[in-house]
Amino acid sequence: MAIKSNLLENTFYQHDKEAILLRRSVREFSEKYVEPMAMKLDQAKSKEEVLSGMKKIIEASSEIRLLSLIVPEHLGGMGGLIYMGSNALEVLAYYDGGAATTIGATWLGLLPVYIGGTLDGGATWEKWLRPFAEADEVGKPQVWSFAITEPTAGSDYERIEGRALPEMTTVATQVEGGYRISGRKVFISNSPIASHMTVFAVTDKGRPYETMMCAIATKDMGFKIEQVYDKMGHRSAPTGEVVFDDIYVPEENVICRPGLGWNFVKMTLAMSRAPVGAIGLGIAKRAFDKAVAYSLERNQGGKRLIDHQLIKYKLATMLEKILVSEYSIYGVSKKVDGSFPPSELEPSLAKSFGGDIAVKVSLEAIQIMGGYGYMKEMEVEKIARDAKLIQIYEGTNEVNRLTAIENLLGL
Ligand SMILES: Cc1cc2nc3c(=O)[nH]c(=O)nc-3n(C[C@H](O)[C@H](O)[C@H](O)COP(=O)(O)OP(=O)(O)OC[C@H]3O[C@@H](n4cnc5c(N)ncnc54)[C@H](O)[C@@H]3O)c2cc1C
After folding, report:
1. CATH assignment of 263-409?
2. What b/e readout covers 143-174, taking b as 16+ CB neighbours within 10 angstroms?
């Protein structure tokens, strides 16, 4: 069923001129490269098909320099950051949640670099962001990952209670000229196709808060992908388990020295959470459009579904959620762009709300579409599977809400 969305074009939030142009260009890119692949990659029989399909989408994204969107202009990028990033991810997610996650996870991997460069007068940017933008310009974009989650610790590394951090098992041992890193990270987005990974490790297992650091590991240093996960949703986005088996990382790849790592994690998540909420918003908008299109075509009780008051009411409550989420995501994204260090409170709530509306709106869309909605061919079933992840990654919604209230009350 062909659908044309007005909610991507006619947004409730009054976007800046640059954002309107960006949304148009991401939309055109997505209709050309993402949409035709979305269902195919979701239903792909082999992991290889997914990896090569997503690599092609990423390579094609160089046509609009999408990945360089968040690189400062003087380094060859487009000079956007959180507000522009949220816009791009919302539009991408409308076409495929997995594509949005893949682009967003590269930006997530770059954020510690962005923070490092903000603190050191730009030296870290020059070292990593300029080559990143150059690679994108010649159509060989780099894919990055962000690796903190461990087999025994997920939520505990996504909260603000730094001093209560549990043991971290990824350890960096100082050697001449750098560090040797050993450990294991789970659920790492992009890792099966990543050339670069910002990895968090500690120099003393028992003192994670005091000794956490962040460094960039590159593929040629030898991090291994132990498995590529088979997931419920975002199936086009490769997610892997990563093993660091005594790999050598030179000092020049250290983004923050031991002791500063936890501050970098907090700032990174404060910057990345509103854009993750935007992925939820894009997913919700597509589910809404699917439900509208169906209710215009389907007849029951002698009239179109849309002509039943109950259906109109359901659609209105879906729209209400979309409106509130849109204002929260873009209001918060702008605030994050304008402040450093960013507050964790508002981004955490924009993310949890965006995740919740994605799930609620997509399940309601299935309900409106009845038995057909439950069938894979109608796509809304895929959309609901994609929606669920927004409540889980980037800190679960529970953890995001805890972060917000603890931040507000100084607990
Ligand atoms: C597809 C996917 C991609 C991901 N990508 C990345 C990535 O790129 N990089 C990365 O580092 N990580 C990534 N993650 C990891 C993700 O951030 C974690 O899964 C998430 O933080 C939750 O951690 P956990 O899975 O260990 O769950 P747990 O922490 O074990 O939580 C289990 C349940 O307990 C609840 N809970 C936990 N602590 C509390 C508490 N204090 N109070 C109340 N409830 C609590 C949680 O809300 C949840 O419902 C990804 C995960 C997935 C599924």
Report:
1. 1.20.140.10
2. bbbbbbbbeebbebbbbbebeebeebbbbbee
Alpha-helix residue ranges (DSSP H) falling in 96-246: 97-119, 123-137, 208-211
The pTM assigned to this predicted structure is 0.97
Q: Are strands 196-202 and 144-147 parallel, antiparallel or unpaired?
A: parallel
**Domain boundaries along the sequence of the chain:** 17-141, 145-261, 263-409
Greater confidence (243 vs 6) lies with: 243
Q: What is the overall mean pLDDT for the chain?
A: 95
Centroid of chain to Cα 97: 9
> Has residue 148 got a pLDDT over 70?
yes
Q: Is the pLDDT of residue 136 over 70?
A: yes
Structure tokens at 9: 């074009």
What architecture is domain 145-261? Beta Barrel (2.40)
346 among known catalytic residues: no
**CA 392 – ligand 1 centroid, Å:** 6
Strand-strand pairing, 171-175 and 224-228 = unpaired
- 280 CA distance to ligand 1 centroid (A)? 17
